[in-house]
Amino acid sequence: RQHEGPRRVKRAWVIPPISVSENHKRIPHLLVQIKSDKQQPGGVIYSIKGPGVDEEPLGIFSIDKFSGKVFLNAMLDREENDRYRLRAFALDLGGATLEDPTDLEIIVVDQNDNRPLFRQDVFTGHVVEGAEPGTCVMTVDATDADDPDTDNAALRYSILDQGAAGMFSINTTTGEICTARPGLDRETMGVYNLTVQAADMSGDGLTTTAMAVIYLEDINDNPPEFTKEEFSMEVEEQAAGVDVGKVFVHDKDLAGSPGWLAKYTILEGDPEGAFAIRTDPHTNDGVLSVVKPLDHEVRDRFELTVSVQNERPLEPAAPASPRALATVRVHVRDVNEAPVFRENPRRISVLEGTPPGTPITTYTASDPDTHQIQPLTYALLYDPADWLQLDPHAGTVRTKRELLHPSAFLQGGWYIALVLARDDAEPPLSATRTLSIEILEVNDHAPQLQPPAGVLCGRPGRGGTLLLGASDDDRPPHGAPFHFQLSPQHPQLARNWSITRFNVTHAVLAVLAELPEGPYSLPLLLRDSGTPPREQQQLLNVSVCPCGRDGTCQDGVLAAATAGAGITLGALLIILGSTILLLVLVGLGAVRVRGRRRALRKGLLERSRDDMRDNILNYDEQGGGEEDQDAYDINQLRHPELFSPRAKGPVRRDAPLSSGSPSAPRRMPNSPSDIEDFINEGLEAADSDPSVPPYDTALIYDYEGSGSVASPLSSIVSSLTDEDQDYDYLSEWGPRFRRLADLYG
User: Fold this and answer.
1) CA-to-CA distance for 702 and 683, rounded, in angstroms?
2) Is the whole-model pTM more than 0.70?
3) CA triple 342-346-352, angle to 5 deg
4) Which of 437, 378, 443 is nearest to 403 (CA)?
5) Which of 150, 390, 605, 703 has the fewest Cβ atoms within 10 Å of its own Cβ atom?
6) Which domains does the chain have, with CATH numbers?
7) Treating both helix axes as pointing N-terminal to C-terminal, what angle do 556-563 and 569-606 enclose, rounded to 10 degrees?
8) Strand 83-91, strand 176-179: pairing
9) Could you report the per-residue pLDDT of 708-742, keeping only the tens digit for each?
């Protein structure tokens, strides 16, 4: 075969791109006619395929299969699809391919059928007031759906309306808005509303509009100013920490901004610093207050000079202006004031034992209301011991009774009272002050010998000493140390006795010569250390006893009885032994009293006419009714001696023939309280008796029989004799009869 080179496509089968305008209204519209050079006797069949034919969108294009003419069947929209690429085919009548498929490209030509669209309806921007010209604020932008390569999408921007000022300009190509001239003042106009336009065809085509809102940001370019030059206020005297009034200012800057907040200063008229002024953060007004109490009688009016300025300094571009000043006149209104004491507390000293009616101090309160003469009266508000009396007009405090130590109303030697002063205004006012009275100790008590008696052996150096003590009702320094000595009026005592100091409160009495046993009365002189000192002669009763080997008294009991609470060791041992002996005697007496009570109860039981312990019957047999008397006779309880081992007792029917007698006789109880013990003893004897049934055998005691010598228990509930019987003795029979005692006693 011959080598085949590239096949050359006939010129008539190559189809150039076809252009058609969008929105073409003459439908159907012939676009092109395709033709194959290979004509067959039977003709050629033409067809096309691709988007718009057999692919979505369907039915836009069609072809005449015999002539090859291609038609447009619907309006095109370039914004949806700007071109279509189809494939054209040529076949013979048998379906064989005559030509290779060729491309058919249809280009949609744009028309200006879309308006520009802003990206938002309202654009917002901010710029500070006073900004220089050329300061850019914001950029507005729009879009156009038409072909960007044509004038249909060439946009131009402009400002249609911004008011008469013309403060802003816009870049026609980029849409950037900037300041056009100086003079932006937020206080004059805080917001600018601009109407901006976008037009295609380089400004000559379709148009659209939007709003551009520009807010001016505040700067501190306006100082605060007082609304008036003078303000008048009034405040009560003695008021502190209260608001007097307000001063009002106006600031053109934005309310709440840092350049709007005001700061106030009191420049003149308040040398004592009695006033203060602060800023109300909500209203920016100045609030004047009193920080120190004012006195109408001292000064009744103030004239203050107050200045105001911003907390932040003014901007350099702001016009210079002097500091704003205002005059504030404050009138101090007179009110009733409470009386005033000069000192609090008042401390005074009063001697102990000061007689009633003695003046101790005088209160003189003053009334601050010098323009209103008001008499003052005084009263005791607190006097817990009722020791004082107060002149209501003169204010003199006197003693009502003697002020003595000790007292529960004294605190560390001080007596506290409260004094009240009151004026006669309506309503009256009062003041209270503390009166502290120191009760000075007076040496009005001599020391007392403690104890006033003692015991010692009468041999020198062999326990012949006695420790002496003293006490004093006075407080220091009028008490100890004490001085002990033998009475100077009896110098002969110094031959047999001596006193030496032991400590500040005690001394030692010693025997100098051997003395016979017996009582001695020694006059002693005791003196304290007060100013002046108090002394008193007292008798010391001394019992001299015979000395033992260890220096203690041989007759310890006698010595203890004579000396009372002796100080020596021997006397202490005697007292201890006596105490133990006394406790033993008390215990024996208690036992004896208890025995007597038991005997008394037994006598009461023996005197009872009816022994209610009739018979204890055995009911474990079903006997012959009321005639059955096979029971345990109560006589065994009344006369136990008849049933002792020495006497021959009746044989129990429930015992074996080989049964023996109880091991020991039991005595009869003498009182109702012993019945329980008696029965328990009998139970124990029966349990230990081998001739009786086992101890846990049930014994029944509710059958009495007939014709019993003893009175039956049923008589207790007899309705015939209830009113004549006395059952109080049941409560004495012990806890087992407590129920019967509650029913019949």
Assistant:
1) 18
2) no
3) 155
4) 437
5) 150
6) 18-109 (2.60.40.60), 117-217 (2.60.40.60), 225-333 (2.60.40.60), 340-440 (2.60.40.60), 448-545 (2.60.40.60)
7) 90
8) unpaired
9) 454 444 444 444 445 556 777 777 777 777 778 77
